[in-house]
Amino acid sequence: MKSFIFASIAILSLFGKNTSNAAPVDVEKRQWDNWGNNGWNQWNNNNQWNNNNQWNNNNQWNNNNQWNNNNQWDNNNQWNQPVQQAPVQQAPATPATPQGGQGGGLKFYSQCVNPNEWAMTFDDGPTQFADTILDLLKEKNMKATFFVVGNLYMNTADSNWARIVKRMYNEGHVVGSHTFNHKDLTTLSADQIKSEMTQLEDAISQAIGKKPAFMRPPYGSGNGNQNVMSTLGSLGYTAAITWNLDSGDWDNKDINYAKQVFSGANSQGSISLNHLQYNGSTKESIVALASAEIDIMLSKGYTPVTMDKCLGLNAYQ
User: Fold this and answer.
1) Spatial distance between the Cα atoms of 278 and 244, rounded to a whole number of angstroms
2) Contacts of 229 (CB under 8 A, 6+ apart)
3) 263 φ, ψ (degrees, to nearest 5)
4) pLDDT digit string, tens, across residues 173-190
5) Which of 173, 178, 246, 275 is catalytic?
6) Residue 275 designated active-site
């Protein structure tokens, strides 16, 4: 019996004895800490794992859809079959639509393409006041654009009509079309529009030897009207020109109204609207109005330009 007790004590002593000075858990913890303080940092500091673009940034692991995004390995450590995705068809680029719609190359414009440029325009000439305005422009060293008509205040049959148009052109101004009879083009058929334009073209061509590429539709109408735009485009016109500064002379606004409008110009490219004659106009009122507008725009730092420079287009066909 004593021998059995002695043997049991010896066996229990053998299994209870620790062969190390520290517990196994402490040893494992120190080994892991050592790896974390040394081995793991070797990956970070040597730029092998995070910064050398081997796994994260070189699109090998996360971004190249090899493991995360291609459904081959999920977060539950399950292996999934790749999902075959149908190729995405890219829609063709949509071409830019000309302002106001398609018109055989014709576009509507209401301002100069460059900031701080100003195109001064006069409608409805030639008139009895045309020479006076031309004298003022020469005095001010200004160039303008004239949208002329064939049968309003002066008819093409009058010899002064051709003389004044020729003077406009010879003194460096641009001559454009304002139709023959000053009719609203949106009320006309395609053939009637052609008649309005070609009658005036012939008269301008006889006066200066060139056919205009610019026109101003009476009342500024026709933008987006396919009949108007396609017909004008088929005749070789490239620009239908309206305005963004209106002197209001046609509505008998006084000079103070125009001064307020022009003083509000804010450096954007500008096209102004004046007339060579209107109800109640006199030589003095027309000259005073144009002179005030010129002084205001020059004081605001604008550069006067003709319409071809304003738009970056050829003025004649």
Assistant:
1) 20
2) 100, 101, 102, 103, 104, 106, 222, 223, 240
3) -65, -20
4) 999 999 999 999 999 999
5) 275
6) yes
